[in-house]
# Entry
Amino acid sequence: MKFHKLLVALLVLSLTLGVKLAAFAQDENAPELTSEEWQKQMDENTAKKTELTGKLAQLDADIATLKTKNSAQDAALVKAEEDLYASVGSTKSGVADFRKKFEAVEKTINKKEGKKEDAVKMFAEIEASKVKCLPEFFDRYKKMKAALDAWSDVKKDVGYTVVKGDCLYKIAGKKEIYNNVKMWPVLWEANEKGVVNAPPKVVKTVKNPNLIYPGQVLKVPALTDDLKKKAELKAKKYRYTRKKKMNTDEVKKDVKKDEKKDVKKDVKKDDKKDVKKDVKKDVKKEEPKKDVKKDVKKEEPKKDVKK
# Structure
């Protein structure tokens, strides 16, 4: 718009200078003009000036019209932006703040800077915001999520050597492994058919998750979302099955205890009955003997009398 004004001004200036130079040239080389000729030339120049001034005024009017249209379009654009940001529960300044945070998280995940658990927390804030659905961010958000899922703190082909007192539950909870005790089924499945290495005469498989041996080198697979979900389900199922079995075993123990108690009671009763019977028998047997002895004692003084 300023360029148009400058162009018109230069055009008017050039015409004015041209007229003056032409007049100057005529003054030097041509004969003097008569008053009528001079007046005619002045009228022509005045007409041209008026024409150019009119064109300049028209250009100014066009510029003013364009400014008005641009202002209306700028206002419409601002309104459209405000409506768009409002649809995701934010404002222009809010989106600007989100943009800075988004770019920082994007850089961290793409370059795998720091720990994954920290990146997960940062990404959770991005994921919780509706602003990520804006066209500016959505495709980049999906790529970021895929990169985060592929990021693992545990390297492939990592092995862990079992020491005395270890169990899969405890190993899975170590910070350098999964930092989550519930992930022990991942270790079990990975080593069920064979561990990385084991000393001589030590079992080279983990058939029972409760039986691992010092010296065994366990496989520690990278923890993916899929493995994590499967491990959680398996741990829950195993815990339920084990609890049910323990309850069944307790019932069996209680039954055995009751049976033993009943057997002991029956044995005591039988023993008492047998004792009573034996006592009665002994009493009956001993009674006649006592009479015989009495008779013998009675007879003895008689023998003495005879003497």
Notes: The first helix runs from residue 2 to 29. Residues 289-299, 302-307 have pLDDT under 50 and may be disordered. Helices lie at 2-29, 35-87, 92-111, 116-128, 138-150, 168-172, 184-191, 225-306. The chain has eight helices and two strands.
